[in-house]
Write a structure and sequence with these properties.
Largest sheet: none
Helix content: over 70%
Structural class: mainly alpha
Number of domains: 2
Number of helices: 2
Strand content: under 5%
């Protein structure tokens, strides 16, 4: 037969709770590495900028 409404709701509630817990854990981990990630992005941006400058200088040298 069909499961009772309350049983369905209970399963749903448990599932939502697990999702919430999982999300909190992931979020905490993400926050923890945030400064490190920002620093890496900054370094990558800097390196990319340097490459652009060098490429421009090379092109300018040809003319």
């Amino acid at each position: 037969g069909l499961p009772r409404h309350s049983a369905v709701m209970e399963r749903l509630r448990r599932r939502i709770e697990l999702c919430r817990r999982h999300h909190s854990t992931c979020e905490a981990r993400y926050e923890a590495v945030s400064p490190e990630r920002l620093e890496l992005e900054r370094q990558h941006t800097f390196a990319l900028h340097q490459r652009c400058i060098q490429a421009k200088a090379k092109r300018a040298g040809k003319h």
